[in-house]
TrEMBL record, chain A:
Listed SUPFAM superfamilies: ARM repeat
Lineage: Eukaryota, Metazoa, Chordata, Craniata, Vertebrata
Protein name: Protein HGH1 homolog
InterPro entries tied to this protein: ARM-like, ARM-type_fold, Hgh1, Protein_HGH1_C, Protein_HGH1_N
Regions of compositional bias (Basic and acidic residues) in chain numbering: 355-375
Highest taxon of the lineage: Eukaryota
Region (Disordered), start-end ranges: 340-375
From TrEMBL, chain B:
Domain called Cns1/TTC4 wheel: residue spans: 257-358
Xref: InterPro entries: Csn1/TTC4_wheel, TPR-like_helical_dom_sf, TPR_rpt
Gene Ontology BP terms: defense response to virus; innate immune response; protein folding
Species the sequence originates in: Aquila chrysaetos chrysaetos
PANTHER family, alphabetized: TETRATRICOPEPTIDE REPEAT PROTEIN 4 (PTHR46035:SF1)
Entry GO terms, CC: cytosol; nucleus
Family according to the record: Belongs to the TTC4 family.
Protein name: Tetratricopeptide repeat domain 4
Keyword Repeat: yes
Keywords assigned by UniProt, alphabetized: Repeat, TPR repeat
UniProt keyword Zinc-finger, yes or no: no
Coiled-coil regions listed in the entry: none
Length: 375, 374
């Protein structure tokens, strides 16, 4: 973009205004001024340009953090809202992480979860946040307990999901000495917030990468499978002998039972179940609990190609033959070089197909996926 | 001091010595050497014990001290699994109304535990609730409360109490396990409710189909007066199966078979001998004569005059409203009979009367009634 003299001047003007705002945010400015400034900052953070301006003012960031934890509720609210918006900017990451203890102190409040959720999309930041939680003492426990509230903050799901992209995050969620992952399970059907639900399902899927915990996850102590299947089940009636094979939670569902509306969440649920079939014992359990019946009905109903593909893959595993010796744990199998390359090119093709489909969705006006953590 | 000689027996004994034969019992009687406290203390026979007790429970001591004494006594009884006496002791301790909330919380908790082992789950729960009020962080009280809710099958409350306890100690194993168990039982309960709902709906549906089949055939039902209220869908409200089956001792009901035919429970009455025969499932398209052939293939034991041969019988039904008798053609099917314009099925069980042809008894029976013969 060619710079014109007018633009350079405008930028200088904006930077000066931002510096003024920073001054008004500082403790010296007095409460009323700070409140007004915080509100202005929130408005400014609504677009990318404004965010960049604010991030360029370290003093402003520090002041906002202080206001967020401060005694004045309206100022705190504005400041927190502003920080949540800022946390989406990569440039804001370092300043915010520098203030990690302060942020952790604001947990399990909703906005704090939001800030940290955004930060934790990046693995390094997630690692630091986890360490901060552990060193601060309670680890994931306050977050897990916050799930028990009547209306948990909607950003809690995404935060847990982003934390679960790391093994140490998953360890925290899979702590057997506590009631840990069990607290997540009811939220696979949580209607009040798609964002929260998506985050929880993502976290559960990530947890399923820990194949040593599969037996425990599938056992009665956790019983993860029904909660993964319930959103995929519809109102279809099964004959009595088929019905009795299903897990208790999937029996005699009412006639107005709805399936999960979001295709990406359906896909994640299927992926989680697929992961659970990696071991021979896991396959046996998943098969035995009548999973195929639910998938059969899902396959009849499903329209999204990506989800259909995942469904078909899983059905193949359930009704296919057992793999040969040495292949009992599919996550541990050594794949020969050429086969690996073939599979990768197939994966690329599939991804391209899905990108095309996703772009079509966006053009049609549905909301794009947000806060999908890298795995 | 006297000495018992090596050969035993004989010798003078000092005052208050044990008798060699009963020394164990005598030792037991001395408070200091008692292994078990006697349940009742009789001041006359055990003055030392009564004395000690009055020392311990001297009212001049402060209420907290006394409460503590009672707590200890209760704990002793508890250890010996004498839960009833433990409850009594704890209750006495609570009656002292001492000012120490911690001590009272413990008294409530312990009494709750004793009540629990006596199977008094509601009382135990009350104690747990009281204890928790006095000291919200008393984990044992929370665990006890959760256990009570489990026994009372209040699984949602059990889970809530477990959550409370886990907020105090997130690693308490009993609570983690109980929570998982309560959750599982709650979900099973929810399934049972769903299943009951579905089954009820199915049953209702089948009833409606049955009633429709009966109505379709123009068969008239007479209702028994009944105290039960059953819900019936609007369209078929005028006919209800209410009291439909009340007279039928075997519980046999009219039902639709796989071919869409009705099968009825039918009662044959033989007024002359005050006997009956019951056909549990009389297919509506089968003829009376065919059933009679089977029923009277061998003559019944009460038929002393050996007259009840199928060819010798006449079948009637009684129109009670008009006290008129109608003869049936035995070669008709049940359906044809039921569709007779004056036939009313009472209590869901069609009834037919059988008489020996031209018998004196039947003449007497018919007197005063209008008889419609074939």
């Amino acid at each position: 973009m060619l710079e014109t003299p007018g633009m350079a001047a405008k930028e200088k003007e904006e930077a000066a205004a931002a510096a003024e705002l920073a001054e008004l945010l500082s403790p010296a400015a007095g409460q009323a001024a700070r409140e007004g400034a915080a509100e202005a900052a929130l408005a400014l953070s609504g677009d990318a340009a404004g965010r960049r301006l604010l991030v360029g003012q370290p003093a402003a960031m520090a002041a906002l953090l202080e206001l967020a934890a401060g005694p004045s509720p309206p100022a705190a609210r504005h400041a927190l809202g502003c920080l949540v918006n800022l946390s989406a900017e990569p440039a804001a990451r370092e300043p915010l992480l520098a203030a990690l203890p302060a942020l952790l102190g604001l947990l399990p409040g909703g906005p704090a979860c939001g800030v940290l959720a955004n930060l934790c999309r990046e693995r390094g930041a997630a690692r630091r946040v986890l360490r901060g939680l552990r060193e601060g003492g309670p680890g994931l426990e306050p977050l897990l307990q916050a799930l028990g509230q009547p209306r948990p903050p909607s950003q809690l799901g995404p935060l847990l999901c982003n934390l679960s992209q790391l093994p140490e995050g998953r360890r925290g969620l899979l702590d057997r000495s506590r009631c840990s992952v069990q607290r997540l399970l009811p939220f696979t059907q949580y209607q009040d917030s798609v964002v929260h639900r998506r985050g929880v399902v993502g976290a559960l899927r990530n947890c399923c990468f820990e194949y040593e915990d599969h037996e425990w996850l599938l056992s009665e102590e956790v019983d993860i499978l029904p909660f993964l299947l319930l959103p995929l089940a519809g109102p279809e009636e099964f004959p009595e002998d088929e019905m009795e094979r299903l897990p208790v939670d999937l029996q005699y569902l009412p006639q107005d039972k709805q399936r999960e509306e979001e295709p990406d969440i359906r896909k994640m649920l299927l992926e989680a179940i697929m992961l659970l079939t990696a071991t021979k014992a896991g396959r046996h359990t998943v098969r035995e609990k009548g999973t195929y019946l639910i998938l059969r009905e899902l396959h009849r109903w499903e329209r999204e190609p990506a989800v259909l593909a995942a469904c078909e893959k899983l059905i193949q595993v359930l009704i296919g033959d057992e793999p040969g010796p040495g292949m009992e744990n599919l996550l541990e199998v050594n794949i020969p070089e050429e086969v690996e390359q073939q599979l990768q090119s197939l994966d690329r093709e599939e991804e391209e197909e899905q990108e095309r489909w996703r772009r079509e969705q966006e053009e049609r006006g549905s909301t794009p996926r947000s806060e999908e953590p890298s795995r | 001091m006297a000495e018992a000689g090596p050969g035993g027996g004989g010798g003078t004994r000092y005052r208050g010595a044990f008798h060699p034969d009963t020394w164990e019992e005598e030792l037991e009687a001395i408070p200091m050497f008692m292994k078990r406290c006697p349940a009742e203390i009789d001041a006359a026979r055990q003055p030392e014990l009564a004395c000690l007790q009055s020392l311990l429970f001297d009212e001049e001591q402060g209420p907290a001290e006394l409460a503590r004494m009672y707590k200890n006594e209760g704990n002793e009884y508890f250890r010996e699994r004498d839960y009833r006496r433990a409850v009594v002791a704890y209750t006495e301790g609570l009656k002292k109304k001492c000012e120490d909330p911690e001590l009272n919380a413990v008294l409530h908790t312990n009494r709750g535990a004793a009540q629990f082992y006596l199977g008094n789950y509601r009382s135990a729960l009350n104690d747990a609730v009281q204890a928790k009020k006095l000291k919200p962080t008393h984990l044992k009280a929370v665990i006890r409360g959760a256990l009570c809710h489990m026994e009372l099958k209040n699984f949602s409350e059990a889970i809530a109490w477990c959550e409370e306890g886990l907020r105090i100690d997130s690693k308490e194993k009993k609570l983690v396990e109980m929570r998982a168990k309560a959750d599982k039982l709650k979900r099973a309960e929810e399934r049972d409710a769903r299943k009951a709902k579905v089954m009820k709906k199915k049953e209702q549906c089948q009833k409606e189909i049955l009633l429709a089949a009966i109505k379709e055939r123009n068969i008239k039902l007479v209702l028994e007066p009944s105290n039960e209220e059953e819900e019936v869908s609007g369209g078929l409200a005028e006919i209800s199966l209410d009291g439909f089956h009340s007279d039928n001792a075997t519980g046999a009901k009219v039902h639709l078979d796989a071919d869409g035919n009705l099968n009825w429970p039918v009662l044959f009455l033989y007024p002359e001998h005050e006997q009956t025969d019951f056909i549990a499932a009389f297919h509506e398209n089968s003829r009376f004569i065919d059933h009679l052939m089977v029923m009277f293939a061998e003559l019944p034991p009460w038929d002393l005059e050996r007259k009840y041969l199928p060819s010798n019988l006449e079948l009637y039904f009684e129109d009670e409203e008009r006290t008129e008798m109608y003869e049936l053609n035995a070669e008709h099917t049940l359906l044809q009979v039921l569709q007779h314009e004056r036939y009313f099925v009472k209590a869901g069980t069609p009834t037919v009367l059988a008489f020996v042809k031209r018998s004196p008894f039947s003449k007497k029976y018919f007197s005063g009634k209008k008889v419609h013969r074939l």
